[in-house]
Input
Amino acid sequence: MELHILEHSLKVASIEKEGIEICTHGLIKLAFLASKTRCKFFSLTETPEDYTIIVDEEGFKELPQSNLISVADSTWLALNVVSGGGNASSSQPIGVTKIAKSVIAPLADHNISVFMLSTYQTDFILVRERDLPMVMHTLSSEFTLFRVVNGETVAAHNLGISNGFVKPKLVPRPIIHPLSSPSNMFCVTSLDPDTLPSVATLLMDVMFYSVGSKEVGATSEDSSHIRFFSFSLIEGYISLVMDEQTAQRFPNNVLFTSASGELWKMVRIGGQPLGFDECGIVAQISEPLATADIPAYYISTFKFDHALVPEENIQSVIRALRTESTAQ
Amino acid sequence: MSGSKPDILWSPHHPNRYVICDSELGLYSIGPVGSTETKPGTLSLSEETAATLLAINSDTPYMKCVAWYPKHEPECLLAVGQANGRVVLTSLGQNHNSTCKELVGKEFVPKHARQCNTLAWNPVDSNLLAAGLDKHRADFSVLIWDISSKFAPETSVAAEKIRLSSVDLDSSTVVTKPLYELGQNDACLSLCWLLRDTKLLLAGMHRNLAIFDLRNTSQKTFVNTKAIQGVTVDPHFPDRVASFFEGQVAIWDLRKFEKPVLTLTEQPKPLTKVAWCPTRTGLLATLTRDSNIIRLYDMQHTPTPIGDETEPTIIERSVQPCDSQIGSFAWHPSSQNRMVVVSAANRVMTDFTVFERISLAWSSTASLMWACGRHLYSCVEDEAEGTDGAAEKDIATKMRERAQSRYGHDTVQVWRNHLLAGGISHMKQCSEDAELKLQGNKQFAVYSGIKNIVKTSSGTTESRRCWSGSDRQTDVTRFQSDERCLALRLCGWISRGPDIDVETFLRSLEQEREWERAAAIALFNLDIRRAIQILSKGAVTEKGDLNLNVVAMALSGYTDEKSSLWREMCSSLRLQLKNPYLCVMFAFLTSEPGAYDGVLYESKVAVRDRVAFACMFLSDAQLPRYIDKLTAEMKEAGNLEGILLTGLTKDGVDLMESYVDRTGDVQTASFCMLKGSPGDVLKDPRVQCWIENYRNLLDAWRFWHKRAEFDILRGKLDPSSKPLAQVFVSCNFCGKSISYSCSAMPHQGRGFSQYGVSGSPTKSKVTSCPGCRKPLPRCALCLMNMGTPVSSCSGTGKSDEKMDLTRENKLAQFNNWFTWCHNCRHGGHAGHMLSWFRDHTECPVSACACKCMQLDTTGNLVPADSS
Output
């Protein structure tokens, strides 16, 4: 397996709901006019609480200064796992579960805080830049490490720190944060960048005017319905996470769907904002899922974490996670 | 490749059909303008060709890429990759009961929808179709479909809920299970099957090029690179692959896959297509965005002597098939260097043939060769042997012939040979110069030329002489001095010795049947009778001109009466005489004393005759002026006859310079200047340049022996040109030169120290260093210490050897020479080495793999003058 350390220096920011207006100009530019910026990594996730932006330094310049925007203090680097050998096994568990044991658990064991971003195309594991030597040390045994420098992939050398680390204690990881499962179902999808202009107005409506559409939804849905939408444009690839109702507003054949047309249910982690320093949260969730061989997407936002699991598995997931937390 | 940008595909089997795909597929047929009747649908592609639209297929929206089925049957079957990752088989212009009916409409659907970037049919297992898709976090990006697979028993799919996919899956024609899935969690941007083994698939993945082997799908060979777009195998070199990234093309050798073997110069705009020419080896065409030119790279495999490390030479050029911006192009599969180009907008098509680069080479022997495409032309000088042909021959041919006939080396005869062959009549003078030189007494004066001789003239005596054979006093004044006499001798009128009689010269002219000239000279020597006698003799000889009698008659009527009818008639009618000598005879007789312009400026008369005439009849005041004027004229014209005047002085070099400028005959210039020039003339850079050029010319003709002879001659005549010893053999132990002569007189640098060169047997027996007495290295073949004689010539004494330097004897000596390879430093006796490398390429030392002989680029050439 190969672990690629991408060259983007990322900022994680949160925009208050009422602050979205002042950022709209920059966000539209980042999302729809990629050729006008030098930004290569942009992700916007709307939750009921706020908008979470993950963006590289070039893109960060597009955002205004405001006290409605809070930025996580450190710079983050994205890691990406690439299967080196062409493994032909087709029953591969999807997403985070695949890398739970190989990446997330070891990092949690070494007290490295991670920030996850799953997309339609791949999973990005964000780590703090200052933690990188530790990350590389931790993962070098399992992975061939590569660093992307100016677009070229070059072998990354271990930074030479091999001693002085505390041997991690392999302790069971109980789930310590409260979980909730909203009622609506989501689809994870993508679209052809060439067709982006044709759905741009619709996307803008979904992104920035959710208050209006939510009222329509709120009347028909029960109270556990959650407002959640994620758009990312990373190295030219678009990824979308939206609920079923939103997806139906798109014209036929624009969104990429899987042959089976699968839908996902969400597990929301955290009762109060999780912060950035606590580690092991992703591991707590993903390990039991990996053990149960349940595919999942995992999207961290500024305040809470979100895992997406197949709708038919939601009950068993809840059950499994409950067991973990009660085992405490 | 996106929907709006057009692309072209040639039919793999129909040489006159192609498909254009933009938002729909259009099948065209191409033909000569004349043969297709001008139907309304005909589009002109070039002056000779036109295309007809045969069919349109717009069944498949969101086209991203198209690939043409590689086999004959079913023809015109196309695979179309769509924006959502589906691959659809479709067809064009086929009637519906054709063989591919059951295939058309078949769809191959990936598990997770994303754009299909590229498609590639396996050229051998043509039911295998590889599709390259964008990445998905949990899916594979390279899917290989089997088009013949029966519609999958779609239990697995059916079991799952088909909900969001509003595009209903018509399960009868949909295949969802690929034969192979490769490249997990990555994107595939380009694909091609490798020609060397059709189980190998080369894929341009997100950040690397990967080779997948279908026999073992868990393995892949890959290299990290940015250049991952448009991978394509050179049809002529199965191991050579091109790929590109933005403006840069990388060429890979699959045998050495770690890095590109070369990258082509970066172009300012991103590339859109790169294609190898199928009809011409090593020709790569590239197209960039928004451009109206196609850039061609011609990769030559020039055989280089050392290894494979050198980069092939690349010739870069651009062609502009049409004025508009090019959308795409495609090489014709079989027509040489032909392509069809489609414009970026409006689907304007152009049929275009890239004109083959012409390469041209002159050989050193005046023949010319050029190559264009698959044709090779040679142009050889006509070998027609004719009298007038000789004059028209190229100077290089002439020089080559002369060099072969030992031009310039030995004797006057050789010089004369040249004189006849080239029609240049100066050398004789030089040779006579040389003869005079042998007399030794007036050495300086002779080579300084008549111009300088007459300047120093002193003690001139004037005399009025009688017409010989009569008492009549002439009114012609004749001048005499020692210098003038020498000048006459240089002009050839009088021979050496005390007598100043022209009779000898006249007789030699008579022998050569130069009647008019002889008569004129006789006349100038005031011997009318002799002149008349010569003319009448000329008239009666075989093929003689009877008119000479008439001239003799006219001559006999000479009178010195100033106002006679004879004078009047002669001075006007003489201009009608064709022969310049006859003309000047009458000019002389009719002119006033001291005013001989009619003679002196008759350019058809040989310079030496005019100069001799001037020396006889011009006063000390007139003579240098005339000579100066004539010299300037000669220099201007580069006329070698002027050498007589200038001698081999700086003036002579000037004259020779204009001669060389006019003719390019460095051979004559070299020999002439070498042949006895005083040192300062030889040091003139122009002279050195001629000599060097002549030597190079001989080398180029492989006339190495001639060149050596020339060098020897040069060394004799100009000792300063002898090369210093360039190679010294020094002892490994004491570091001193092992040459005896060197050790005897150290630091002289004179001894030619290639050991064994000297003929003395006492020296050739030495097998140890004369300095420290340690043994010399052994010959790698005979294992004898160097210096040991290898042939039977050892017994001959020194004096004998000098006497009979037979060919065999010389060879034996050469066989004794040291030779060694500069690379591996192994060596031995020259003779042994020569015979070893006649049959081997590797070094004779057993553990050494050095290909010594191949390192020597000239080692296999043979001299052209094997004399």
Remarks:
- The two ends of chain A are 34 Å apart (CA to CA).
- Confidence is low (pLDDT under 50) at residues 85-91, 213-221 of chain A.
